[in-house]
Amino acid sequence: MINKNTISEYLHSMALAKFIYSINKTLPYDKLDSFINNIKDVIKFNGKTYHLLETLFPDDKFVKFVSCSETGLDALITVSEIEKTIFITFRGTEMETIDAYYNINLTKKYLTDDIFVHKGYWDHLTKYNLHLTMCKIISKLLDKYPNYKVNIAGHSLGSMLSTLFCYILITQMPCLNGKISVNMFAPPCACNNKMFTFLKSKNITISSFIYKNDFVSSLFPGFDEYFPKYVLSNNFFYYLTNKNDGTLESHRDDFGNSRIDDHNSKHYLNSILAIYKKYYD
């Protein structure tokens, strides 16, 4: 059984991953540089996900909201003093936005150590160097909170942005070796196994989640994807080793064929919340 702190981290990061979809896109920011301090002062939030965060994780400090109208990149940086963790959360795809352009750019971007990634996602994250500014923000936070861990997470597109940002962050800040965890919810296949090998070599904890028959995990043929996975149902989950050993496809026999609705972030949050309540509430 996974311990309570780990389940709590999964729940916390997934709640943030769902919450970021609700942030108003009409916020006042410069065209290419949006770093808004304490977004709670800008927007009066409501809704079930926000109330869940307020109830279970009331000490969250919303440090920065990062947004770029040119690329559609949205990220939220929060700090939990109780969990001693800096959370970095990336928004997933919204099809009516420019996100779709980056999703369909299936060219491979080659990095160091024979790693290749989905170029559309890489450009989405790195255009205008917002990723480097985010690294500077994290560095300043770690100056203030030197013993804190870093958690990076997202749903759908956001999950792969989390992986790519993790790669960038550990490359920029090697001192974070062993201090980063990545939670990927509904991840598409958008990198090769060399990325997984590299991140493991930096002692980064990676957890990946698929809800029932979510179709997104099988997208983008030509890209390997070896991250360990948990398959979620309504109030339980079980572990898979990787998508290429047959277990990912066999689990679909339990639930039926792939379904678009299973990709909805609400299912991921409700499932992990049910697991948390079942074992630890």
Give a brief description.
This protein is α/β, with parallel strands linked by helices.
List keywords for this structure.
281 residues, alpha/beta, two-stranded antiparallel sheet, 21% strand, globular
General shape = globular
Number of helices: 9
By secondary-structure content and strand pairing, the structural class works out as alpha/beta
Write down how many β-strands occur, each being a DSSP E stretch of 2 or more residues: 11
Distance from N terminus to C terminus (CA atoms, Å) equals 15 Å
- pLDDT under 50 segments (min length 5)? 28-36, 240-255
Average pLDDT level: 79
Strand order of the largest sheet: 1-2-3-4-7-8-9-10-11
What's the SSE pattern?
A: HEHEEEHEEHHEHEHEEEHH
Which percent bin holds the helix content? 25-40%
Rg is: 18 Å
Largest sheet: 9 strands, mixed
Question: Which SSEs are present, and which pair or pack?
Answer:
Layout: H1 4-19, E1 34-37, H2 48-56, E2 61-67, E3 74-80, E4 85-90, H3 99-103, E5 108-110, E6 116-118, H4 119-126, H5 130-144, E7 149-155, H6 157-172, E8 180-185, H7 193-201, E9 205-211, E10 229-232, E11 237-240, H8 247-255, H9 265-280
Parallel strand pairs: 4-7, 7-8, 8-9, 9-10
Antiparallel strand pairs: 1-2, 2-3, 3-4, 5-6, 10-11
Can you offer a commentary on this structure?
37% of the residues lie in helices and 21% in strands. It has nine helices and eleven strands. It has helices at 4-19, 48-56, 99-103, 119-126, 130-144, 157-172, 193-201, 247-255, 265-280; strands at 34-37, 61-67, 74-80, 85-90, 108-110, 116-118, 149-155, 180-185, 205-211, 229-232, 237-240. Helix 6 links the parallel strand 7 (149-155) and strand 8 (180-185). The longest helix has 16 residues, at 4-19. Residues 28-36 and 240-255 have low confidence and may be disordered.
